[in-house]
Structure formats: structure tokens, C-alpha cells
Specification:
Elements lengths: L4 E6 L9 H11 L6 E7 L2 H8 L5 E7 L9 E4 L17 H10 L6 E7 L12 H5 L1 H20 L1
Parallel strand pairs: 1-2, 1-3, 3-5
Antiparallel strand pairs: 4-5
């Protein structure tokens, strides 16, 4: 275990609440960074994310808008079920299954994954988060901070 962590905001800022992950990543990048933690806004650059994941991270925290059927603005911390090996990756999509498929195709191992997701209210053409999702950014920041604190404490001991 090398203790390296990637925090990746994903989503499309041109589709309202789908830009949630990008906004959380942007806010995280304004904070002082922890040692061994890389924060980036990947937007819709799934291939870039897959290549960066080849760098040997122990944990990847993905921040994204996720539909789970809850009230808009609800923030979730999820442990995703990953695709079985053999899926066909699509280099043109940001779907996380595609990212993991591409990572496998490139010969990489999928690290431990956590998703900090927010239930979107509006995913339609337009820039900017809805009010309810914008209020959830701080909640997501707290969850990411908690995940980082827990992991960095475990590596230190």
C-alpha cells in the first residue's frame, strides 16, 4: 500500500447538475492539499482518468451526480460494484463502467473505489447547479474530507 489517493470530479458542466463532481473538485483544489492526495476535475475526460489511474493509486474517490431515486440534493457515499472483466471499453464515454473497462484493457488494476454522489434535480442543457444541488457541495466536501482523514490515518499507523 503506497497511500496514494486520487480524488476525481467527473461530469458535464453544460448539463446543469451533472456538473456536481466538477464543482466539488474545483472547490477541493482551492484548499491546501494533503500529501499523497491528487485532486483533479476530469469533466467528461474518461480516457484521461483511466490513464491517470494507471499510476498506482490505492484509493480513487470519484465525485459525480448519481441517480439513486432519492430526493434531489441527497449526498451518497457508495462502494460500486465493478464490471466483470471482459467488458468492451468505449473511449468516447465518461460512463464509469467504460473507464474501468479501459483501465483493464490498458493492463491496470482497479484500485479501491468510493463514489461521493449527489442526487441531481436538473440534468438538462444549461450551465450551473440547481439551488438544492449547490447546497449539497459542502456536504460532499465533508464526506471527501472524512474519507481522506480515515485513509491517511490508516496509512500513518
Amino acid at each position: 500500500m503506497n497511500g496514494r489517493i486520487l480524488v476525481a470530479g467527473v461530469g458535464n458542466i453544460f448539463f446543469g447538475d451533472d456538473g456536481f463532481g466538477c464543482e466539488v473538485a474545483r472547490r477541493l483544489m482551492l484548499q491546501s492539499q494533503r500529501e499523497r492526495v491528487t485532486v483533479d476535475d476530469y469533466g467528461i475526460r474518461g480516457t484521461h482518468l483511466a490513464y491517470d489511474m494507471l499510476s498506482g493509486y490505492d484509493l480513487v474517490i470519484l465525485i459525480d451526480a448519481v441517480r439513486r431515486g432519492g430526493d434531489p440534493g441527497t449526498v451518497y457515499v457508495l462502494e460500486p460494484e465493478l464490471l466483470a472483466p471482459g467488458g468492451v471499453p468505449d473511449a468516447h464515454g465518461m460512463d464509469l463502467s467504460n473507464v474501468f473497462g479501459m483501465l483493464r484493457t490498458l493492463g491496470g488494476l482497479i484500485p479501491e473505489i468510493r463514489i461521493v454522489g449527489c442526487e441531481p434535480a436538473l440534468v438538462e442543457e444549461g450551465i450551473g447547479l440547481s439551488d438544492v444541488v449547490a447546497r449539497s457541495v459542502d456536504v460532499a466536501l465533508e464526506h471527501v474530507s472524512s474519507l481522506l482523514s480515515t485513509r491517511t490515518a490508516a496509512v500513518a499507523s
